[in-house]
Here is the input.
Amino acid sequence: MNDYIRSAQVRVIDETGEQLGVKPITEAIMLARSKGLDLIEIVPNSMPPVCRIVDYSKYKYEEERKLRQLRKKTKTGQVKEIRLRPRIGGHDLEFKIAHAREFLEKKFKVKCTIMFIGREKAHRDIGYGILDTIKEKLSDIAVVEGQPRFEGNRLIALFTQKK
Here is the structure.
């Protein structure tokens, strides 16, 4: 900004967006100050750098507003979790799958966690069987992101909506 611009010549754009051409830096700064505005380097990597004559505080405010709008529009990948045990009953499993389906239809990711406690840890195959059942029931709207993995005493799979 202003005196901190290091190149000898700059391409100047005025406050209305009109190009004024390539000018020496001192002339460009004097032109900006005569209008009561600031000279801001917009594209520093080009030859010569592109500078714009604007009110710096208004420029910063507009940039922050654009960033806020972008952040507002981006939806973070929210994850809903469904917890199960290896000894879950058939009806309970169907109930949990129905919840997972609702979450997937609302564009959430679903983290399916099967918790193993005590002697259940020796029967990991039951957990993989439950995950296969869930994968089969949700195959019309979801896919598994990566391979199911063990973290401690939990078997975890992440389901995302099909593209």
Q: What stands out?
A: The domain at 2-71 is CATH 3.10.20.80 (Ubiquitin-like (UB roll)).
